[in-house]
Amino acid sequence: MARTVRLVPALLASVLTLAGCGGGVHGTPGGSGVRDPYFPKAGNGGYDVAHYALRLTYAPDAHHLTGTATVTARATQDLSAFNLDFEGLEVERVTVGGETARWNRAGQELTVRPHADIDRDDTFHVTVRYSGAPETVTDPDGSREGWLRTADGALALGEPTGSMTWFPGNHHPSDKAAYDVTVSVPQGLRAVSNGELRSERTARGRTTYRWHTGEPMASYLATLAIGRFDISHSRTPDGLPVYTAVDPAEAAASRPVLGRIPEVLRWAEKRFGPYPFSSTGAIVDRAADLGYALETQNRPVFPGAPDLTLLVHELAHQWYGDSVSPKSWRDMWLNEGFATYAEWLWEEDHGGKSAQETFDALYSGDSSDTEEAAESVWAFPPADPPSAARISEAPVYWRGAMVLQKVRQVVGDEKFWRILKGWAAAYRHGNADTADFTAYVEKQAPGEDFEGIWEDWLYGEGKPERP
Ligand code: TRP
Ligand code: ZN
User: Is the CB of residue 339 less than 8 Å from the CB of residue 313?
Assistant: First the structure.
């Protein structure tokens, strides 16, 4: 027996040598997912994207998108093949390092087989040319994302997986990258994306907009709004560029609240630390049935004129979610709990209820404006949603915020402010998970015992016994 067992590795090695003979074949295929607990096919293994260059042309009347995506990535293993996430549309050509590559598709997986293997640590460029009618996708929770048509154009939104409907990539929040997005639309329409507008040129009846995002961005935060917009272009007193694009039908209602972006950011910087990006703004656009706002990087998207609380929520996400991004979709409460807590803090800092009062009302279930939350908030632990369909439910938002209030109760205000800022600084432009958070808090307050809070409030089923 022992001999047979010892023979197996030798046999395997010789088979591998045979397979590899004759030409430096040494790589293996990268994974088709990154083992996200809720979206196992999202993302891909074997490489790390540094930059996306997207050149897009859209014809709203024909609902036709033409694209060339050039993805610059570093191999994290020797690669014989790798996957990109890409849904719908038609792939016309794929090159790697300028050479035609073989490819095939199965569902959302586009598998690319380069002409030659890629060595670990090498940087490579993959270009995908594609076209077709981009799709809207329905999430496990029933909300719509991906490419949404509007009366005068389109709106692309990507939480959690919709960005793969308009460009191929490593569509998981754990792989953040810089972006250059160039979009050509019929003259008279505008294209608005993340980051800063680098140029705008009209020729032969088409206008081309070039947008640049220098800071790392998770692909679910990428956006593109095409249509007619009222544009406002200004700077905060600190010199941060503010670019807002508003559907003309929503302009009058939006103007007063969007005018408060500088004021909200000044307050947020005081509470959360330096603003993490090189520009800000907002997009207000009407897509049918779009019932939610999204914290798209630099420039959140609103489905209509937002109220001040929603503006505070989406701007707070720029620190918590956009700069400090979740490692997996299980860590959603680090986005939504913090953004909800920001709403509570804004109220506390502006003469309203204290965060403790909001917490108490939720705990006792006697708050009228949070009635719905009061019932559903105990449905599951925020750090462990039961399924993909429930990652944006009440426990992730409200009970997540309650976790932060519990920490504040233990450490006191001064240390709590340091933790809010310190967390944003420690993981700035990176990724974090729940274990990173609990470890961070414990390190900031070494004398305190948080075990009970983590057990009852973060990971425990049901309503914790003590508020
Ligand atoms: N992140 C959005 C917000 O709270 C809400 C949202 C939109 C969402 N789509 C989602 C949350 C998909 C989870 C999954 O501002
Ligand atoms: Zn949110």
Answer: yes
